[in-house]
Amino acid sequence: MSRVLVTGANGFVGQALCRTLIERGHAVTGLVRHAGGCTMGVREWVQQSQDFIGLDAAWPAGQQVDSVVHLAARVHVMQDRAADPLGAFRATNVEGALRVAQAARRNGAARFVFVSSIKAVGEADSGLPLREDDPPRPQDPYGRSKLEAEQALVHFGEASGLDVVIVRPPLVYGPGVRANFLQLMNAIAKGRPLPLGAISARRSLVYVDNLADALLRCATDPRAAHGLFHVADGHDPSVTELAQALGKHLNKPARLIPMPARLLRTAGRLTGRSAQVERLVGDLRVDISRIRAVLAWQPPYSVDDGLAATARWYLSTR
After folding, report:
1. What Å distances lie between residue 294 and 22, 219, 256, 259, 263, CA to CA?
2. Crossing angle, helix 261-271 and helix 274-281, to 10 degrees?
3. Most buried of 14, 61, 155, 221, CB within 10 angstroms?
4. What SS3 state is found at 108?
5. Residue 112 DSSP SS3
6. Taking 60 as the threshold, does the pLDDT of residue 250 lie above it?
7. Which residues cross the membrane (predicted)?
8. The CATH number of the domain where 75 resides is what?
9. In this structure, are residues 59 and 33 in contact, taking their beta carbons and an 8 Å threshold?
10. Is pLDDT at 78 greater than 60 in this prediction?
């Protein structure tokens, strides 16, 4: 049994991870900013300071952990209203992550699992799925902050002896999902026509319980030491296939208009939404051969399993 501290334990991924850890017999402490929302069996630790300032001094006496999984972050937003978006992302995703790592190391943690993002590498692939050793080319403040955090944490680990493991997931979905994925389900469930019937671009996804399983392995498996891993479901559906599969599981066949990608890109340029359109019509595939080889990891759930569970949740809330 390992003692694992999870930051952001009451969030979307955090709840799934904590549930998986507890089911496998591990002791879990959830470090959260606001009380409530943690999975049953999690020892909740509320620390309300911004960006984990003062975390080391606030560390409870006797609170020992073997590893930390750092999920808490300032997440990517489509319309960022911060005066200095990169500065805001750095404050939380770089400086905040370092504070957690420093406090954890000083209080005995041996491993720190940093949940980064595939956006630290880029927004699209160049004909082949993105590998861990591809030159990183982040395109927005969120992606840059995640890459800078990776680099800062690796440097700290080398200097302090902390075993830093980095995980880069693509878009995460599952019960409780929000943002664009939820909007897509809303549109399909309401029978709205969508111009997605001719999009051949393939996008890697990761079902939240697949990600939780991989993070557990990265937190507890000795073979993960100092690793950098891409994690995804192992099958990359096209946007058209994704919409069709969601329609099947929502019992509402998706109404898809076969609009060519070039017309969508033109519309994106005219409306100032090129970045959003490119996320629909551009390929973003993730190579997961390293985590398969190093940890003998296989996604326990298929894409269809994940979409079915997500659709069941969605229908249960309506």
Report:
1. 24, 14, 40, 42, 43
2. 160
3. 14
4. coil
5. strand
6. yes
7. none
8. 3.40.50.720
9. no
10. no
> Does some domain include residue 159?
yes
- Report the distance separating Cα 130 and Cα 135, nearest Å: 10
pLDDT in tens, 151-210: 999 999 999 999 999 999 999 999 999 988 999 999 999 999 999 999 999 999 999 999
Average pLDDT (5-20) is 97
Nearest to residue 168, comparing CAs of 134, 201, 141? 134
The region, left, alpha or beta by phi > 0 then psi within -120 to 50, assigned to residue 256 is beta
For 123-189, give the secondary structure using H, E and C: CCCCCCCECCCCCCCCCCHHHHHHHHHHHHHHHHHHHHCCEEEEEECCEEECCCCCHHHHHHHHHHH
207 is catalytic: no
Identify whether 187 is part of a domain: no
Q: Are 192 and 39 in contact (CB under 8 A)?
A: no
From CA 143, how far away is CA 123, in angstroms rounded? 9
Residue among 111, 217, 206 at smallest CA distance from 165: 111
Extract the tokens encoding 239.
Answer: 């946007």
Q: How far is CA 111 from CA 69, 274, 304, in A?
A: 9, 40, 33
CA–CA separation, 194 vs 216, rounded Å?
A: 37
Residue 199 counted as domain residue:
no
219 domain-assigned? yes
Domain count, the chain: 1
Residue 151 class from Cβ within 10 Å (0-12 exposed, 13-18 middle, 19+ buried)?
middle
Rounded to whole angstroms, what are the CA distances from 40 to 21, 43, 67, 143, 260? 11, 9, 20, 33, 48
Looking at residue 284, what DSSP letter applies? B
